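Quick one, T. Sequence first:
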Amino acid sequence: MKITYWVLSVVFALFALVQYNDPDPVQWILLYAGVAVHFGMAATGKMYRPAVWLWLAAAAIWAATLLPDFINWIRLGEPSIVDTMKAEQPWIELTREFLGLVLAALGCGFLLWKNRV
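Structure tokens:
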């Protein structure tokens, strides 16, 4: 499991690194870097469950605020959100953000599930 944790730590660190040119980079870098740190700590056997719960709650609550936009994207017929990196329509960026938050929440949930006491 240590290898899986290290791989996911690197993946989330890369997610954080590519946020530097985002319109709101600080919050996204903190979100993804935090998940990367949690995976790294789990890999070393030093995971702090309350912090992971906090990150999970933050990602889930933040995602909930974008859920209406995600549902709107589904109602639009799920047009492509990856044709171009430039978000020409507001639903492109909001859907991408929602999915990123879901990934972060799932990562934290995975850590809590695999390291239950």
